[in-house]
Amino acid sequence: MKWLGFLIHAAVFLALTLLTQIGGLVYLLAWALTFNIRRFLPRQFWRVVLFLTLYVGALFAAREMAPVYGRVPLPCLEGEQREFRMQSPIYCLLNRNYVRPEVRSMILDLAIHMNREFPGTITLGLDANFPFFDGFPLFPHLSHDDGRKLDLAFYYRDDKGYLPGVSASPVGYWAFAAAPDHLLCPAQRPWHSPRWDMAWFQQYNRGLSVDLDRTKAALNWLLAAGEAHGLEKIFLEPSLQKKWGISGGVVRFQGCNAARHDDHIHLQLGD
Length: 271
Description:
Layout: H1 2-20, H2 23-33, H3 43-65, E1 72-73, E2 84-86, H4 89-93, E3 98-99, H5 101-117, E4 123-125, E5 149-153, E6 156-158, E7 161-162, E8 209-210, H6 212-229, E9 231-235, H7 238-244, E10 251-252, E11 264-269
Parallel strand pairs: 2-4, 9-10
Antiparallel strand pairs: 1-3, 5-11, 6-7, 6-8, 9-11
C-alpha cells in the first residue's frame, strides 16, 4: 500500500534527521535519484549504495561548512590529537562532534593538562552538537543545540590501574557510578522523562571503576580554569558531588526531568 511506504520513508527520514541532522536530506536525495532505477539489481540496493556514498560526502562537506555557523569539529581519531578524542567514531559518523571554538579550546587545554599531570591520559568526548543551526535539537538531549555544550566521559580503571582511552560503557553513557537517588528524584517519573536507569543495558558494560584521581583532577581543573574559557555550568549528580567532594561554583544538579549525570560530565559555556 502506498500510504505504508510513505510512512516508512517518513520514519526513516525523521530518524536520520534526529540522529545526524543531515541524514534525512541525504536519504531524500538518494531516494529521488534512484526512483526509476530497476536494472540489474533491486532499486533498494542502489538506494543504499547511493545513500552511503552521498552521506560520506556530506560528512566532509559539513566539516568544511560548519565554521560558517560558528562550529568546529572535535578530534575523532587517535592520530588527530594525542590527548583527546571522541569516545567512539560513531559520534563523528553521526555528526555529533561539533562545538564552538571556545569549547574546543577549553577541552583541549583540559586534555593537555590531564596528560601532563597523569602521563598517558586520554580525555574522551561524548555527545557535543550538530554542525549547523542554533536551536536544532540533539536527541535525546534537552540542551545540546547551540554548540556550547559537551559531554565528557569519566576516566576508568580496572584492578591493575588506569585504562587509557577506555570507558566502562561501549557508547560512553549509562555506566552509572551511583545508585538512583530516589530521595532527590521520585522513582516513578513521567514517561517522557529522560532520567533513565537503563537496567537492560547494564549487561553490556565492562564493570570498570571510575578513576577517581583523574576524574576529580579534571573537575577541579574545570572549576579553577573554566571561568577563563567562559564555563557556565557543570552538571554532576549530587550524590557524586558529595562523595567526591566536588561542589560549588559552576557545579549544578541538572534537575529530575533531565538525564542522569552519574555516568558522564556535562559542560556548558555561557553566551
